């Protein structure tokens, strides 16, 4: 219900620093210890992941990272990262388990990137199949793309943000390789979500953004914001390096950046500019919910599926719980 108040952009109640804060505090008081959570299996994992989601939305990313990492480790203990662990389950339960795993995987990767923390599990240890379509579940196309984006995030953290004492040439090559991977992901997006940005105009699936179905526009925006965020995440050290050089231009080691560095930096700026265009379109269509905290005068912008990593698919695992809850009480 706390997450529901965020999704509906309900005003924060007196004494709350964010919508749903009092509900969340009450929920955390009843949150059991790790041993009890483990004994509850999938349900225990979902509870911790949902707690991480709330913390992520309200920008308490450090605490969210801790909770998401706990959810991931609980899932690993249950073998959800391994192939064949769901063979004895009904197909619908196996699909739910699979999507829950990948949702937590994405959540933990993106929170690690947001806070500058290490990832908890490398891809070489994961053998479970990627999400697939199954009757009664939403299409897997969006979550598959988000999983691929999260993998690139993990590669970026390991390759770009791990101090290996690399030379500038080696570092630039690493960033270029990451950019190639991101561009390849963009080219693989399903046609119904394909976005074309021409000047200040955006088309989704061949239609102007304002005329595209809201669910399609939201999903497409989520995916493209993930991609543009991946460009910025990989290229951010280059932007900082260029900024440092500009302030120390008289010092020989900090001369003009190479043309390769400038091209990569320009790609980051382009990604940021396109992200702003998408956010403006979402604002114009009323897809972003806004709530004003009257006590502090702080605007809270809640964008379903785009919380510090744009995890539209994460909500699939909680869809039935949220839709059945009376979040207006």
UniProtKB/TrEMBL annotation:
Has keyword Cell division? no
Q: Does the keyword Cell inner membrane apply?
A: no
Top-level taxon of the source organism: Eukaryota
Instruction: List the InterPro entries.
Output: Fungal_SecMet_Regulators, XnlR_reg_dom
Q: Which UniProt keywords apply?
A: Nucleus, Transcription, Transcription regulation
Q: Which Pfam families match?
A: Fungal_trans (PF04082)
Q: Which residues form the Xylanolytic transcriptional activator regulatory domain?
A: 64-137
Q: Which PANTHER family match?
A: PROLINE UTILIZATION TRANS-ACTIVATOR, REGULATORY PROTEIN GAL4
Protein's name according to its UniProt entry: Xylanolytic transcriptional activator regulatory domain-containing protein
């Amino acid at each position: 219900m706390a997450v529901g108040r965020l999704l509906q952009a309900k005003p924060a109640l007196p004494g709350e620093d964010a919508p749903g804060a009092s509900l969340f505090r009450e929920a955390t008081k009843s949150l059991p210890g790790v041993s009890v959570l483990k004994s509850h299996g999938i349900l225990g994992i979902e509870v911790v992941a949902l707690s991480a989601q709330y913390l992520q939305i309200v920008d308490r990313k450090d605490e969210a990272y801790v909770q998401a990492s706990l959810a991931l480790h609980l899932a690993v203990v249950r073998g959800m990262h391994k192939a064949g662990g769901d063979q004895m389950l009904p197909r619908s339960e196996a699909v739910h388990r699979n999507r829950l795993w990948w949702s937590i995987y994405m959540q933990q990767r993106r929170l690690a990137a947001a806070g500058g923390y290490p990832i908890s599990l490398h891809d070489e240890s994961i053998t479970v199949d990627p999400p697939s379509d199954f009757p009664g579940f939403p299409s897997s196309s969006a979550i598959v793309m988000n999983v691929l984006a999260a993998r690139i995030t993990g590669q970026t953290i390991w390759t770009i943000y791990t101090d290996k004492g690399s030379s500038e040439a080696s570092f630039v090559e690493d960033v270029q390789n990451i950019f190639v991977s991101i561009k390849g992901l963009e080219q693989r997006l399903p046609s119904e979500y394909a976005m074309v940005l021409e000047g200040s105009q955006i088309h989704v699936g061949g239609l102007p953004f304002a005329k595209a179905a809201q669910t399609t526009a939201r999903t497409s925006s989520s995916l493209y914001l993930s991609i543009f965020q991946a460009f910025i995440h990989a290229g951010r050290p280059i932007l900082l390096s260029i900024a440092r050089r500009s302030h120390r231009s008289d010092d020989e080691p900090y001369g003009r950046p190479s043309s390769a560095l400038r091209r990569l930096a320009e790609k980051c700026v382009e990604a940021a500019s396109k992200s702003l265009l998408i956010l403006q379109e979402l604002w114009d269509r009323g897809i972003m919910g806004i709530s004003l905290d009257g006590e502090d005068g702080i605007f809270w912008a809640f964008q379903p599926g785009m919380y510090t990593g744009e995890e539209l698919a994460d909500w699939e695992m909680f869809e039935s719980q949220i839709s059945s809850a009376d979040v207006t009480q």
